[in-house]
Amino acid sequence: MSIERVAIIGLGLLGGSIGLAIAERAPEIVTTGYDRDPDVRKAAAARGLTNILLDTASEAVATADLVILCVPVGAMEAAARELAPHLPAEAIISDVGSSKKSVIEALGAALPGRTVIPAHPVAGTEQSGPNAGFPTLFAGRWCILTPPMGTDQAALEALSDFWTRLGARVEMMDPDHHDLVLAVTSHIPHLIAFTIVGTASDLEEVTRSEVIKYSAGGFRDFTRIAASDPVMWRDVFLSNKGAVLEMLGRFTEDLTALQRAIRSGDGETLHELFSRTRAIRREVIDQGQDDSSPDFGREH
Ligand code: NAP
Questions:
Q1: How far is the CA of 46 from the centre of ligand 1 (A)?
Q2: Domain spanning 5-173 has what CATH number?
Q3: Pick from 36, 46, 108, 131: CA 20 to 30 A from residue 294's CA?
Q4: Rounded Cα distance, 291 and 285, in Å
Q5: DSSP letter, residue 216
Q6: Closest ligand 1 atom number to CA of residue 124
Q7: CATH pick for 177-265 out of 1.10.3660.10, 3.20.110.20, 3.20.20.300, 3.30.230.10
């Protein structure tokens, strides 16, 4: 089965980047796009995020082989219900949502009997909206597919090939495992960043202007993550509640152990942990998931 027409629903960072990546790496694929916000549609047309931009979801999906839902996780079910009656019989329906179990439930309820193969490209930035996307977002990044039992093999291969063509490396995963892995690699780090930036801005003993002025000490790196889209992240935590709470329990225990080590002057424990974490940073770089420039390549 070959994918010749792709409909992108939601034209923000992820939807826009998919459209631009297709134009650059697979230009023979025709893309149609729809976003519920007319201003986003206008901006998407101006940037050429898809070949054809439409004012309704029904028109956008009418001739698609592959429909990709690029909306916040909490909006997946409504978006799927809106286009369900207009889908071609053989179309594959996929998504890019950051949590998978809840999306599978939502799409299963909205699209019974359809070929639904959820996906999560593990690639992003703190930017959102139609001007945020870029064609190389997926290059060298992982895209995790979570096919339900009994998924049509030809459809799965077609979707896998599609993501490979956009530059991604594809892996299959069980949705529960996906949600646990992403809770620890993405969702908890975001929660920590939201918390530390929130705490710093609530302090009374240290002024807000001091927090900003001396932010190069480490704080500003948290502010990048904490600037991420509030709607998207609200939905991630509400939809991946179980896995996030499980990992947060573990994190809290480790934090308490560290607190104890600081209080009791246990430098050995601190040094051992910081040495292990430094080695993990090296592995991230060695595996091509970040570059090795000091201080993220900032000029000094
Ligand atoms: P975004 O830039 O905010 O774009 C989402 C767009 O979808 C918005 O323009 C939104 O319009 C629109 N939308 C919402 N409901 C819709 C509907 N029912 N029909 C059509 N359009 C609708 O968000 P994003 O960062 O691209 O994230 C999209 C998805 O990708 C999320 O599920 C997120 O979990 C996942 N993801 C994000 C990242 C990341 O780093 N950002 C990484 C991997 C995966 P309104 O503004 O009017 O709501």
A1: 19
A2: 3.40.50.720
A3: 131
A4: 6
A5: G
A6: 40
A7: 1.10.3660.10
